[in-house]
Amino acid sequence: MELFTRIDTLADGKLDFKLYRYTPSFPAAIVATVIFAILSCLHIWRLTKARAWYFIPFTIGGAFETIGYAARIISHNNKESVPAYSVQAILILVAPALFAASIYMILGRIIISLRAQHLSLIPVRWLTKVFVCGDIVSFSLQAAGGGIQASGTIEAYDRGEKIILAGLFVQIVVFGIFVITSGLFHRKCLQNPTLAARENAFPWKLDLNVLYTVSIIILVRSIFRVVEYLQGNGGYLISHEVFLYIFDAVLMAIVMIVFLIWYVDHLQYKDGNEYDLEPCVVDETNSS
Questions:
Q1: 121 and 188 in contact (C-beta within 8 Å)?
Q2: What Rg do the C-alpha atoms of the chain give, in angstroms?
Q3: Residue 249 carries which DSSP code?
Q4: How many other C-beta atoms lie within 10 A of the C-beta of residue 70?
Q5: Local confidence band at 151 (pLDDT 50, 70, 90 cut-offs)
Q6: Predicted pLDDT of residue 4
Q7: CA–CA separation, 170 vs 180, rounded Å?
Q8: CA distance 59 to 41
Q9: What domains, with CATH codes, occur in the chain?
């Protein structure tokens, strides 16, 4: 097995290109659709109840996952259907970028709620904007690449594949910088806690650990997708459906479950408009 395989040429000179190199599993698609539908409905309920509007992109991502796997049900009966293939390929591909958008917004609100703006590597006023803009670039590239592939020609597939890879690389880089930024803030806040951090006004340490967990999970999924696309249409990963479910469906379901169990809806400034609050630093001489 070669690690990187492109579109092969058959003995008669024709290109060996297929939308699917297997028949999509009907039971697996049904189970995935039901699970993501349930998780999405639960997130809609929690979102409206908590009025934590920064979870809107996350919830839309869950809907994308649901529709994407529902399209694979259609593909089971007609795996030559370009529309069904395109819907599942694009929506399942870009859904994690929507998850990421909410994750980026949560960090800024944690920092603001702790009144710890002075400890952030990136000014809080720009923090969410920087990461969400990077996420938009990643999302746009992946969606554009998927849209180009949807034309159904081999040339378009190859061109779209390169654009998707660029989007995935952007996502990995942005997520990496996000994790580093979160980690540096976490360390600084432990070393020089604000009053809110010292008094544990809310479970900020748990919130950050949740962000680390889901970020790493999405990073693993993105790396899998990069390798999958680098291998090409005839690659080992894309030719075996099980990898899609292990490294994408299961991981993204875990991300949604994690945020259901530890729903970050207790932040003081849910609207994110309190950027100009003065930081509240603990006076060590008075607190000792």
A1: no
A2: 21
A3: I
A4: 20
A5: confident
A6: 43
A7: 15
A8: 8
A9: 19-266 (1.20.1070)
pLDDT tens-digit series, residues 175-224 = 999 999 999 999 999 999 999 999 998 999 999 999 999 999 999 999 99
What pLDDT digit, counting tens, does each position of 37-78 carry?
999 999 999 999 998 899 999 999 999 999 999 999 999 999
Chain centroid, CA 250 distance in Å: 13
How many residues does the structure list for the chain?
A: 288
Q: What is the pTM of this model?
A: 0.86
9, β-bridge pairs: 15
At position 186, the amino acid (one-letter code) is H
* 232: its two tokens: 């090409």
Q: Which of 266, 272, 264 is nearest to 109 (CA)?
A: 272
Backbone angles phi, psi at 266, to 5 degrees: -105, 10
- Taking the CA atoms of residue 101, residue 219, residue 115 and residue 206 in that order, the dihedral angle to the nearest 10 degrees is 120
**Residue 2, helix vs strand vs coil:** coil
Q: Is 209 helix (H, G, I), strand (E, B) or coil?
A: helix
Residue 105: which of 83, 78, 132 has the closest Cα? Answer: 132
Name the residue with tokens 């998780």: 39
Calpha distance 196→218 (Å, rounded): 30
